[in-house]
Amino acid sequence: MRLGLAGIGRIGTAHARILRGIPEVESLLVTDLDPERARAAAAGLGAEFVPDPDTLFASAPDGLVIATATDSHPELITRAVAARIPVFCEKPVAADLPGTLKVIEATEDSDVPVQIGFQRRFDAGYTAARAAVASGELGRLHTLRATTLDPAPPPAEYVPRSGGLFRDCGVHDFDIIRWVTGREIAEVYALGTNRGAAFFAEAGDVDTGAAVLTLDDDTIALVSATRYNGAGYDVRLELLGECDSIAVGLDERTPLASTEPGVERPEGPAYPHFLDRFAPAYVRELTAFTEVIAGLRPSPCTPRDALEAFYVAEACEVSRTEHRPVALAEVRSG
């Protein structure tokens, strides 16, 4: 198949390398807001350069991968669906809830598939955890603990357009909690602090946050996120049940040391960033997209799935700024 890729920044370049390694992808067309960057990337990847999205759409690719800035996602998604081109788009669908709902309204009645990039659904550890919950071997879950801990802050210019810590980082935890447990999140209570760079507060954001989530069966989930985890990139999910407890993300590279006598540190090196930690998951995710294009499976993560995680992130932002519990029903109706 012949695929198009819009956006050749860090994640777009990573996706391009993966796509070039998938046997079903015979050719790849690359475009970017910066044509010279796209031209150079295409040459280095053995892909075909196209100067702009109009040329890309005119080429009628079999599928489109969107890795551009968030504000361009709605137009590219809806344009691809209108052109009957299956589309994969990195999260989020749009920068806010109204924009997300508008994309869903414009695309949901179409039979053209849309897949949103929540790569943790394709990670072996999270997949095994989902199977363990479904099998009943953990018994009744009473507590979940999820972390997304970045080793260092993003560039200052990224923060004002990131959507904030809960929408940018925590949204992955919210999605995976729903996916692993098969439950919906009913209520949140969130808080955040700023003890690092001033640009977080200047953008109305926080550099460290936490949320207590109540699931619809009264299971409690604790979510932690920060931009300052100097030990390394640390993403985990602990599932504590009445019969057994398991954890995703505990391995020889987890940046977490024990203080107990005789317990050695993980061998390391610690994961430096998400592309390293989730490298196999990204391959499975994009391979799944080629199967979606071929009609072999439905979209494994729809815009409606992304909306549900966004609702949780939105509720956390309201809770953080207003210092109160927020029911998901409140943001759904708002």
UniProtKB/TrEMBL annotation:
Keywords: Oxidoreductase. Residues 126-244 form the GFO/IDH/MocA-like oxidoreductase domain. It holds the Pfam family GFO_IDH_MocA. InterPro entries: Gfo/Idh/MocA-like_OxRdtase_N, GFO_IDH_MocA-like_dom, NAD(P)-bd_dom_sf. GO terms for molecular function: nucleotide binding; oxidoreductase activity. The keyword Coiled coil does not apply. The keyword Aminoacyl-tRNA synthetase does not apply. Residues 2-118 form the Gfo/Idh/MocA-like oxidoreductase N-terminal domain. It comes from the Bacteria. Signal peptide: none annotated. Belongs to the Gfo/Idh/MocA family. This is Dehydrogenase. The lineage of its organism: Bacteria, Bacillati, Actinomycetota, Actinomycetes, Pseudonocardiales.
